[in-house]
Amino acid sequence: MWFKNLRVYRLTKEFDLTAEKLNELLEPQAFVPCGSQDAARYGWVPPLGRHGSELVHATNGYLMVCAKKQEKVIPAGVVNEKVEERAQAISEKEHRQVGRKEKQNLKDEVLLEMRPKAFARSRLHYAYIAPRDGWVVVDASSASAAEELLEHLREALSSLAVIPLSAKNLPQQAMTHWLTAPEAPARFEFGHECELRDPKDSGSVIRCKNQDLCAEEIHNHLVAGMQVHKLGLVWNGGVEFVVDHQLSLKRVKFSDELVEKADSADSENAAQRFDADFSVMTLEISALLTDLVAAFGGAGEGASVEEIVARANRAEQDQLAAEVEEVML
C-alpha cells in the first residue's frame, strides 16, 4: 500500500464530505468485471481489498480510495495477422484489393470474436484526499493514469475542484540552482540521480544514475547552460525519491525505520495493519510535501506548469529584446 509515485493536486475549494458520504457517492460506480464484449471496465473497490467492504478508508482525516481498471488483453500482432489473412482471402476470391475502410471493418469483426476469450488484466490505482492539507495525492507513474482516476472521482461527486500542484519558482531553475551551488534545501539532501536538459536543444539530454551529483563533471554541464529536469533527493533521512520539473515524485522509497514504525503498531489483523501503514505514510507525505513546496518558493497561484514555463520564456525573450535594443542604441 505504500505509495511509490506521487502526483499531487491542490484542492481549490473546501472538501467537506465525510467518509460515509463519499462512500455513498462512490457506490453507484463500484467496479464490475468485464463482460464478454467489454474492452475495459473501471470502478471503485475497497482499499482494504478482501479484508474490507467500504469503498473509503479514513484515518486521521485522510480519505483513501482505490480504483480498479480491467482491460482485455488482445495482442495487436495477432489481430493484424488475422485481418491480413481475411483480407487476402477476400482478395483472392473476388479478385480485388481490400480497402482501408473494409480492413477496419474486418478488424472490428476479429476483435468481436476474440474479446470473449481474451485474458483480462487488472490494475489497482490508489489515491487519498487530504482535506486539511488541501491536497489530493494519487499513486500513479503517469499523468494520464492520475487524470483518469480524478475524472471518475469527479463523475461520482459531480464536482471536484483540483489543479496540479505548481510552485512560485520554476522547478527546473530552482533545482539547477541547488545543484550548481551545490546546496540542497533545508531538510533535504541530494540523492544519486538526475536528468539534465539543454533548454536550447530539446534532444540534448544527460541522465546520471548512481553518481555523486556534486561531482565536477556534472557541475561543468550546469555551468555550460544545461538545466536540471529531474533530481534525486532524500527528505529528512527517511524518504528517497526523484522529483521532476512537473513536481511529480517517482520511485518513492520509505526507509526501513518508517516501515518498521508502522509494523510495530499493535495490529491484530490485516485491516489494522493497513490502517497503521496508511497513518504513518500520510503523515510523512504531508510533512514532505510541505517542505518540498516551501523549497520551491511556495505553491503557485493556480497556474499550470506549462503556463509557468511560458511566462518564464516570455520574460527571457523580453530581457533579450531589451539587451539587443540597448546595444543598437
TrEMBL record:
NCBIfam families: PRK00321.1-3 (NF001462), PRK00321.1-5 (NF001464)
Gene Ontology BP terms: DNA recombination; regulation of DNA recombination
Keyword Cytoplasm among record annotations: yes
Localization, UniProt: Cytoplasm, Nucleoid
Homology family: Belongs to the RdgC family.
Domain of life: Bacteria
GO molecular function (one): double-stranded DNA binding
Protein's organism: Microbulbifer aggregans
PANTHER family: RECOMBINATION-ASSOCIATED PROTEIN RDGC
Keywords: Cytoplasm, DNA recombination
Function in brief: May be involved in recombination.
Keyword Isomerase: no
Gene that encodes the chain: rdgC
Pfam family, one: RdgC
One GO location term (cellular component): cytoplasm
Name of this protein: Recombination-associated protein RdgC
